[in-house]
Write a structure and sequence with these properties.
The chain is of the alpha+beta class. The chain contains twelve helices and 18 strands. Strands 7, 8, 9, 10, 11 and 12 form a six-stranded antiparallel beta sheet that branches. It has a four-stranded antiparallel beta sheet with strand order 1-6-2-3, covered by helices on one side. α7 runs antiparallel to α9 and α10 packs parallel to α11.
């Protein structure tokens, strides 16, 4: 789960990382005269590319700020309703840096990525000037060691009093990673001001969804860090992650769901989601999961892959039937159903005239033929 920008900045501020002076509002009427203009008005959304979407604008006075805030608040971007706007005073920037900490699962360690070229897409820097990217890994049991921080400071070309201040930022990011079960802590840009201070101009923090129960100070439902679909999934009791493809996928169990996604890609398709209804899913969970995908305009077809142990085939079938009865069949559905109460499930689904497959591979093959429309 990605925190909204202002929440990420608040977390880092607790650990000593400076942020621009500003305020968070949920209504244009909350904008008073306490800020020093000009300010930057920034819509709070849990995805990247805001500036390119026109969701970050400069306001020269309170009236302009109110007008921009009114434009943003209530606007729906990528199915996400904007509920908060951050207003920040400008900072006298001398230089901008990029720095992030993330989880390197391949090498089972944490990874620091940094560059003296901040404020722009780090992907472009890595592509055009890979020599300007610092990569330093450390084992979670060993923790962040001083020698690695010193290597980073040298690479970034930071000297004198600023080196000590920069190190404080790095250690603060590490502490947030540890204390909040974060998968990513990124500051871009981290600005060095004319008076020698480091300020986090933009922040991205992603927290492991499964660890949210440990962090009561992160209130996702009220503040809107999650998309509408993600909130619906949390409320219904299943796991959902949106992906950029066009084939909806439902599975029972993370392993089976990921294997199903791999199978779809093997046959040339692109998954639109990771959706795991879990073991022992009730018909209500199945109904909610299928309803979510049927309403998603991006999805061309839905693949349901169930291998029932504690998940009962009849419960799955009832859930599918109720979802279709409520929403209608707006796109083709392909179902592989095996395991507990399989025959009962097949009988329940029979009136829907949806083919039930013995193997996921057969289902994927027919699905790809259907969406290609070429018979291949």
């Amino acid at each position: 789960m990605r925190l909204l920008e202002y929440k990420g900045k608040d977390l880092l501020y607790k650990y000593g990382v400076e942020k621009p002076r500003g305020m968070v509002i949920s209504s244009p009427d909350q904008i008073g005269q306490g800020l020093k203009y000009p300010v930057f008005v920034k819509a709070q959304v849990p995805f990247a590319g805001r500036a390119k979407m026109g969701l970050v604008k400069k306001a020269n006075n309170a009236d302009e700020a109110r007008a921009i805030a009114k434009e943003y608040l209530g606007k729906v971007i990528q199915d996400f309703p904007i509920k908060k706007v951050l207003l920040e005073e400008g900072s006298p920037i001398k230089k901008e840096y990029y720095i992030s900490m993330t989880v390197d699962r391949t090498n089972e360690r944490y990874l620091i990525l940094a560059s003296p070229e901040g404020g722009i897409d780090i992907e472009e820097v890595a592509k055009e000037h890979p020599e300007k990217i610092f990569r330093g890994g450390f084992h979670p049991f060993a923790g962040l060691r001083d020698y690695l921080v010193n290597e980073l400071i040298k690479f970034m070309g930071i000297q004198g009093a600023q080196a000590k201040e920069f190190a404080k930022v790095v250690y603060a990011m590490y502490q947030v990673m540890m204390d909040y079960d974060a998968e990513l802590v990124e500051i871009n840009p981290l600005a060095l001001t004319e008076d020698g201070k480091f300020i986090a101009i933009d922040v991205k923090i992603m927290v492991d969804d499964n660890a949210l129960f440990r962090h009561g100070d992160i209130n996702v439902e009220e503040e809107g860090d999650l998309t509408r679909e993600e909130l619906e999934a949390r409320a219904a009791g299943f796991h959902y992650v949106e992906l950029p493809g066009d084939i909806g996928i439902i599975g029972n169990g993370a392993g089976l769901t990921m294997a199903t996604m791999d199978l779809v890609k093997e046959y040339g398709g692109e998954p639109a989601d990771f959706l795991d209804i879990g073991g022992g899913a009730s018909r209500d969970i199945v109904k909610s999961a299928l309803t979510l995908l049927l309403k998603d305009a991006r999805i061309k077809a839905v693949l349901i892959n169930i291998f029932g142990g504690i998940t009962r085939g009849d419960e799955v079938a009832y859930g599918v039937t109720e979802a279709i009865r409520e929403v209608g069949v707006s796109k083709p559905i392909f179902i592989r159903l095996k395991g507990t109460n399989e025959e009962e499930g097949r009988k329940i689904l029979a009136p829907l005239n949806i083919k039930i497959y013995d193997t996921a591979e057969e289902a994927v093959q027919d699905l790809m033929k259907a969406i290609r429309g070429d018979g291949k």
